[in-house]
Amino acid sequence: MLVCRHLGHAWLLIVGFGLIVRQTQAEHILAIFSYAFSSPYLVVRPLIKELVERGHQVTVISGTKHFPTIDGAHHIRVLRLDNLLNDLIDFENGLDMNPSKWRKATWISEFYYFSSQYILADHGVQQLIHNSTAQFDLVIMNTPISDALCGFAQHFKAPRIGISAYGSAWIIDYLAGNSAPSVYEPMSPLEYTSTRSSSILDKWDSWVYKTEEWLLERLVYLPPQIKLYRQYFNDSYSNFDEIRRNFSLILVNQHFSLGRVRSNVPNLIEVAGMHMCVHKNCKLDPIPDDLQRFMDEAEHGVIYFSMGVEIYMKWLPDKMKSTFLEAFSNIKQRVVWKYDGLNSLKDKSDNIFFRSYLPQQQILNHPKTKLFITHAGLLSIIETAYYGVPVLSLPLYYDQFANAQRMHLAGVGQTLKLNSISVETLNESIYEILHNPSYTSNVQRMSNRFRDQPMSPLKTAVWWTEYILRHKGATHMRLPEHEMSFMQYYNLDLMPILFGRIGLTAIIVILLAYKLTNWIISSYYIRLDLL
């Protein structure tokens, strides 16, 4: 009886293990990331790590410096990606605060051309492409703009998942086959602010802005990517647009509770906060002892100031840094300031704590933190919303202007123009946010809404990734519009019919008006003659 009982237990363990294996069947996944800076890697790394821990065989193509090695994953390192940002920008001369839209588009196009080209020309990547035994069940890649890399999915005949680390825009809708794209979000919102006004002029301005973006995408971004695709995958590019739009799923780093409500199709999944350490198996490192004491002893609260991981204080003009220093020295709150190059800063105040690296989530989660002064990068906005801290935004480029405006419209913060900031305007904004309770109450409500989700963002991303694997690409999730031409997608094929009817009606009305006018004039002159 004892032997049978042990055999029975062993059989149950075997069956249970079999069920687990069936539920998380190991698949071969290729993940390609052309990022040359650190913040987007913060978004994708937890997903890759979780997929590896669930038993999937993952090969990662990425740079070296910003993407740490994940145990169990096979890494192909593209060393040239690490220095791409420094090669294309002369940071020693400072940041260009006012680049034109076309100049910025040219730079972005050049940046993503080289990032895609460095990956495709890499020796290890070329070995993988020409390895006849290499097979993958899924390809994961960053999107948009790195379109040449879509050739990997076609080459390995695998479905493709995109990750949009900077939220969504009209180009993401287009790639996913979304027939109801948002009118508020351009792709490169250079000081673009959306409007909730329904006036004709506002709608016209939005349409013109996005038409410029469409022209940039077609004339500036795409041609270099098509060139790379032809060179490394297929010289016939007549169906390239169909290839680049063939996404089974796009994971979008946003959430409707953060002020960006969208009409998403089934293959657009919102996963804002996927990078955050909020699930059960994740533990944040403790705050360093000296910083912990500095914050704990802050009688009037703490203000946290950081311009993110990619913006260094040494790039900002000296006058601007002096403005911050003077403004912070005038307030009674303590300030935790992420600052590189401390030797260049003079006349430090005792109420300011400087450090080149700071644990941002832990600081925002501290009960004494009352305000976050930020560049309004998307990851920072997500974190401050989760932890319920009001924001003072100082946007510099790309999506930061739209992120800052959403926080302003939601009543959880204010926005200042960095290139025209003064001690007075900075202190006034700080005082308003700290002493007006509406900012704190609004951000707390936003935090409660954002946290109220059936699964954590990371679990959501993993579940949908494995859904695509289970259903071999899940083509049933895409709308028929996904296969339509540009003319059909935007109903432009109806324009001749529409304008034909309108034009015919207009011609008839004009002719009738002309005849009526002539009759009135003739009648008038006839009466004059009779008189």
Explain how this protein is built.
The protein is an alpha/beta fold and 531 residues long. It has three domains: 27-278 and 457-483, Rossmann fold (3-Layer(aba) Sandwich), CATH 3.40.50; 289-451, Glycogen Phosphorylase B (Rossmann fold, 3-Layer(aba) Sandwich); 494-519. The chain has 19 helices and 13 strands. The protein has a seven-stranded parallel sheet, with helices on both faces. Helix 2 links the parallel strand 1 and strand 2. It is globular, with a radius of gyration of 28 Å. The chain starts with a helix and ends with a helix. 38% of the residues are buried.
The CATH topology of the largest domain:
Rossmann fold
Low-confidence stretches: 1-7, 9-23, 91-95
Helical percent range? 40-55%
Number of discrete domains: 3
Number of helices: 19
Cα(first) to Cα(last) distance is: 130 Å
| Backbone CA Rg | 28 Å
The strand order across the widest sheet is 3-2-1-4-5-6-7
Q: Structural class from helices and strands?
A: alpha/beta
Topology, element by element:
Layout: H1 2-23, E1 28-32, H2 39-53, E2 57-62, E3 74-77, H3 84-88, H4 101-121, H5 123-129, E4 138-142, H6 151-156, E5 160-164, H7 170-176, H8 200-232, H9 240-244, E6 249-252, E7 268-270, H10 289-296, E8 302-306, H11 318-329, E9 334-338, E10 352-355, H12 360-364, E11 369-374, H13 378-387, E12 391-393, H14 400-409, E13 413-415, H15 423-435, H16 437-451, H17 457-470, H18 486-489, H19 495-530
Parallel strand pairs: 1-2, 1-4, 2-3, 4-5, 5-6, 6-7, 8-9, 8-11, 9-10, 11-12, 12-13
Helix pairs in contact: 4-8, 11-15, 13-16
